[in-house]
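QA checklist item 7 of 12: single-chain prediction sanity check.
[x] sequence parsed
[x] length recorded as 136
[x] structure emitted
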Amino acid sequence: MAKTERASPDKPVKTAAPERVAAFRTGLSAEARAAALLMAKGYRILAKRFRTPHGEIDIIARKRNLVAFVEVKARASLDDAAYAVTPRQQHRIIDAAQAWLMAHPDHAELELRFDAILVAPRSLPRHLIAAFDASQ
């Protein structure tokens, strides 16, 4: 979404490129679809878009004694979305999960899992349970 500021003679107005705005909106829509899918499966959403200096977790959800750290990927196809969860990104998500657990120690004793939800046009979202693990 474009950042709005008042124009002044010494400070030009900054706006995001249209493709960045579209990508941001697509991401928000995909995350909303993913959260709805998780809730339909009985998960409770604990956090969305949890950010740290090391990385971001799109959704943190809990179901019984399980906490799932969920990466949401939206691409033109579900296969493209699956390939977009790279090892480097997995490492950043794991680091962010450690930060979240330090801030929420009551959840650290539960079962932990790293999932992915893939979103593509004209397809139902696909939930990949245990898409990767912290030992990779």
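[x] summary fact logged: The chain is about 35% helix and 30% strand.
[ ] second reviewer sign-off
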